[in-house]
Amino acid sequence: MIISHRFKFVFFSNPETGSDAVCRVLAPFADEPVVPFHSQSPERPYYTCMSPSEAAIAFFQNNRNLADYVCISSIENPFTRLPRVYDRILEEDNFKTLRRLIGQTPPSFDRWLIKSETGGRGGGGSLQDRWRRFGTWTSSNWSAGFVEHFIRREHMAEDLNQVISELQLPIPMLAAESNLQMPTRPLGRNATEIISIRYRDDLVAFDYCPSDTDEVAA
After folding, report:
1. Are 53 and 146 in contact (CB under 8 A)?
2. Cα separation, 27 vs 47, whole angstroms
3. Roughly what angle, to the nearest 10 degrees, separates helices 189-198 and 78-91?
4. What is the DSSP letter of 35?
5. What is the pTM of this model?
6. How far is Cα of residue 162 from the mean position of the Cα atoms in its chain?
7. Cα–Cα distances in angstroms (integers) from residue 121 to residues 35, 104, 131, 144, 192, in the given order
8. Pairing of strands 2-4, 9-12
């Protein structure tokens, strides 16, 4: 998360969308401390992976209005983002060794996807598991009406240059780059259909489709 009072913008780190790369570009303009979630306090109310709706409350409590700032965030094709969130959940499962010993297998991607939500509890986990909770949210649920610009992970230079120009930030434009191809794996038709329906608005708004990834598995 990057907050710049001088240039009147806030960049929200949408989990699992390549936001770290954007933060590195915008970091020189940060003039408000952002701390880890567990370190937040009245003196340090802003924390990593804070959602726009959470930030709006914190701004209000500190006599500021988030609506006075240009809000920016990042986005990624859900056909590549969701499998990566699922893989990370399995990798960071503290009980995976125990589950293996007792013969308990993790849920398949399709089963996890069905139980996940595009808002609310998202991909599950506790509130401090920001990446997991927000990793399955649609852009509209994440934005809550505040975000004006979404930077597509696959077109970061192109989209970020537009923001740099609009905000008149005193930094060079990013070098043009070819479209970023995210690592993918074939998805079953059931998973593809679920994602296509749940994330229809995002697919249309950001020109995403299953063909941006590997060929769909039978």
Report:
1. yes
2. 15
3. 110
4. B
5. 0.89
6. 19
7. 23, 24, 11, 15, 21
8. antiparallel
Displacement of CA 180 from its chain's centroid (Å): 17
Identify the burial level of 170 via C-beta atoms within 10 angstroms of its C-beta, where 0-12 means exposed, 13-18 middle and 19 or more buried.
exposed
Distance, CA of 205 to CA of 107 (rounded, Å): 31
Closest CA to 192 of 210, 205, 206, 204: 210
- pLDDT reported for residue 162: 95
Q: Which residues contact 140 (CB under 8 A, 6 or more apart)?
A: 201, 202
Query: What pLDDT, on a 0 to 100 scale, did the predictor assign at position 214?
Result: 44
Q: Which residues of the chain have pLDDT under 70?
A: 95-99, 177-185, 211-218
What's the token pair of residue 113? Answer: 């996807």
- On whether the CB atoms of residues 75 and 202 are closer than 8 A, the answer is yes
- Walk across the sheet containing 70-75 and list its strands: 2-4, 9-12, 70-75, 147-152
Q: What is the pLDDT of residue 216?
A: 37
Cα 84 to Cα 102: distance, rounded to the nearest angstrom = 26
Calculate ∠ Cα 109-115-117, nearest 5°. 110
All residues at 6 or more sequence positions from 108 whose CB lies less than 8 Å from its CB, including other chains: none
- Rounded to a whole number of angstroms, the distance between the first and last alpha carbons of the chain is 40
